[in-house]
Amino acid sequence: MRWLKKGFLFSVIALLLLSLTACNTGELQKVKVGEVTRSIFYAPQYVALEKGFFEDEGLSVDLQTIAGGDKTMTALLSDGIDIALVGSETSIYVTAQGTNDPIQNFAQLTQTDGTFLVAREKMENFSWEELKGSVFLGQRKGGMPQMAGEFVLKKHGIDPSKDLTLIQNIDFANISTAFASGTGDFVQLFEPTASVFEKEGKGYIVASFGTESGHLPYTSYMAKDSYLKEQDKTAQSFTNALKRAQDFVQEKSAAEVAEIIQPYFENIDVALIETVVERYKSQGSYATDPILDEEEWENLQAVMEEAGELPQRVEYEELVNTTFAKKAAK
Where is the signal peptide (predicted)? Predict the structure, then answer.
């Protein structure tokens, strides 16, 4: 009889544990996140998802890829998503148009430009002067990649409107295809496309816009001011998970990070992902913490102003909320 009682007791305990597990799963707070593109540039985000850091913080993250900053911001404004991962310049554009519910940058993911200059031919001793007289296939006008690109060109004494033929009317998703089809002598590309082109002999990386443009709040998580006030615990949990992922990426090898995030890049060889992660790590593109500091904010506006795309200067405190990031950094 004693063994029957023990068996019954073990069964009760097992059922209780299953019940508690089910309850905990059911209590996860769902958060809808929209990323502006799928990129190895966002490696810490995928690490947080794959390693279960969000779940550890009680969150269930529903990640959507919404091509284009304007479309991502539209989804945020219309409550299609709760949090947007997009260039910080979009929050300035929204503010300039007028809003009763400001968009707040609350956690920074990347801190440099993530694009590379790709030439059609191999150039062993590249000089920026070689862009003069060329056809340059740039990014969308008004977007951070294009503005940072023009900033770097001017830094090297190249006037984009006079010294080369600048093409920037091609949709973001089709830029790489246009170059592969023969358009342009140079193109500004994100990873992993730049490395894929190099591997396939379609183009060759000759320079990094990230190392040339300085620190910027290039990609940040943002949400409506009302959401951050009403869902402050959710925002804090989200930022805590992000900080854990940022630490992981900084501390672990590019090879380990590549293995973890490969499910998000199924058609790309893990060795190539490792190359890209190492490239971004070596040039300091991944933010080491989620705090968007004032110097970065001012550099962003300087780049926008240089490109003639700054609708109005916006004070740091107006659109940057560091409350969650500072707590997470501790």
Answer: 1-24
**151 neighbors 181 (Cβ within 8 angstroms):** no
Q: Please state, in angstroms and rounded to a whole number, the distance separating the CA atoms of residues 228 and 82.
A: 10
- Verify that 180 and 232 share a domain, yes or no: no
Taking the CB of residue 163, how many other CB atoms lie within 10 A of it? 17
CA-based nearest residue to 290, from 221, 223, 231 = 221
Q: Is residue 298 within 8 Å of 88, Cβ to Cβ?
A: no
Are residues 221 and 208 both part of a single domain? no
The set of residues, in sequence order, having a beta carbon less than 8 Å from that of 174 and lying 6+ positions away, is none
Render pLDDT for 194-247 as a digit per residue (tens, 0 to 9). Answer: 999 999 999 999 999 999 988 999 999 999 999 999 999 999 999 999 999 999
Q: How far apart are CA 58 and CA 29, in angstroms?
A: 6
Count other C-beta atoms under 10 Å from residue 170's C-beta.
19
Of the candidates 298, 294, 276, the one whose C-alpha atom is nearest the C-alpha of residue 286 is 276
Instruction: Say what the alpha-carbon torsion angle 137, 307, 148, 195 is, to the nearest 10 degrees.
Output: -10
Owning domain of residue 145: 115-213
DSSP class of residue 54? H
The pair of structure tokens assigned to 325 is 């990031």
The DSSP result for 122-190, as a single string, is --TT--GGGGTTSEEE---TTSHHHHHHHHHHHHTT--TTTTSEEE--S-GGGHHHHHHTT--SEEEEE
Q: Does residue 5 register a pLDDT over 80?
A: no
Using one digit for the tens of pLDDT, what is the confidence trace for 174-209? 899 999 999 999 999 988 899 999 999 999 999 999
- Residues 197 and 125 reside in one and the same domain: yes
Q: Do 188 and 221 reside in the same domain of the chain?
A: no
**pLDDT tens sequence across 113-124:** 999 999 999 998
Give the CATH number of the domain where residue 143 resides. Answer: 3.40.190.10
